Structure formats: structure tokens, C-alpha cells
């Protein structure tokens, strides 16, 4: 009863080949996307909690990598069809852009932390010079 309905919506070969990736592989793909979304959200919360805006940049910098992961999942979901090969190119571009934005965000966090430490050391006198 349900089989004719399903087979009328999709080609039978599509139903069989959609499972070309194993269930554990699908679990890894999907859980990685969920984990990345969670990390973006948690980093944003950390930035709000510490009132350090440089952490917001990191959460934005993570978005291209998330898009890349979603491209991979979408392409695999549709059985790596040649009509969607542009997703592979988009995935590669988003990976490159994501790596660059993550590098920049990491540098920005390092720089703002360094500047805050320098500002704090100027406010507090050096304890080794107090006795001199």
C-alpha cells in the first residue's frame, strides 16, 4: 500500500541509492552540523557573559564552515547527483573562506586579550619596583 505511493514519488533507484552512506556516517554528518551550531551559540553566550565582543567575531567566523558542512550533507542526501556538483565547489569555497575567517577571529581574540593585559598592567604598578 505505501510502497506504490513512495515509488511514485521517487524513482526506486533513488530510494535504494540514497542509503549509499552508512547510518553511522549519516550520524556523524548530522551530529557534526548540530555540534557546530551549538558551538556557535555557546561562543556567542560566552562573549555576552564576558562582555568581550571579540568572541562574537568567532561565532560569525564559524558560519562559512557551517555552510560548508550543510553543502556536504545536502549533496550526499541527494546521492551526489551531477546536477548538484556546484555544491562541491561551494563547499570548497566555504571551507577556504571559513578557515580564513577563523584565523582572523582567533587573531582578533588574541590581540584584544593582549591589549587588555597591557592596559591592566599599566593601571597596576609593577610590584618589583615598589621596594626600589
Can you walk through the features of this model?
- This protein is an all-alpha fold and 132 residues long.
- The chain has a domain at 22-110.
- It is built from seven helices and no strands.
- The chain has helices at 2-9, 12-17, 23-50, 54-61, 63-77, 86-123, 127-130.
- The protein is elongated, with a radius of gyration of 24 Å.
- The model is unreliable at 5-10 (pLDDT under 50).
SS content category: mainly alpha
In angstroms, what separates the terminal alpha carbons?
Answer: 92 Å
* Parts with pLDDT < 50 across at least 5 consecutive residues: 5-10
What characteristic shape results from the CA principal axes?
elongated
Mean pLDDT: 85
Largest sheet: none
Oligomer: single chain
Please report which band the strand proportion falls in: under 5%, 5-15%, 15-25%, 25-35%, 35-45% or over 45%: under 5%
Order of helices and strands: HHHHHHH
**Number of strand segments:** 0
Q: Provide a count of the helices.
A: 7
The helicity comes to over 70%
Rg of Cα set: 24 Å
Amino acid at each position: 500500500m505505501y510502497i506504490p505511493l513512495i515509488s511514485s514519488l521517487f524513482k526506486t533507484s533513488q530510494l535504494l541509492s540514497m542509503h549509499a552512506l552508512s547510518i553511522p556516517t549519516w550520524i556523524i554528518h548530522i551530529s557534526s552540523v548540530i555540534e557546530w551550531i551549538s558551538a556557535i551559540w555557546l561562543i556567542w553566550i560566552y562573549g555576552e557573559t564576558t562582555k568581550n565582543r571579540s568572541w562574537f567575531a568567532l561565532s560569525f567566523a564559524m558560519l562559512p564552515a557551517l555552510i560548508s558542512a550543510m553543502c556536504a550533507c545536502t549533496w550526499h542526501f541527494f546521492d551526489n547527483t551531477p546536477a548538484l556538483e556546484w555544491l562541491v565547489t561551494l563547499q570548497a569555497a566555504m571551507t577556504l573562506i571559513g578557515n580564513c575567517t577563523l584565523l582572523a577571529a582567533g587573531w582578533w581574540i588574541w590581540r584584544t586579550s593582549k591589549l587588555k593585559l597591557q592596559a591592566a598592567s599599566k593601571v597596576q604598578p609593577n610590584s618589583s619596583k615598589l621596594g626600589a
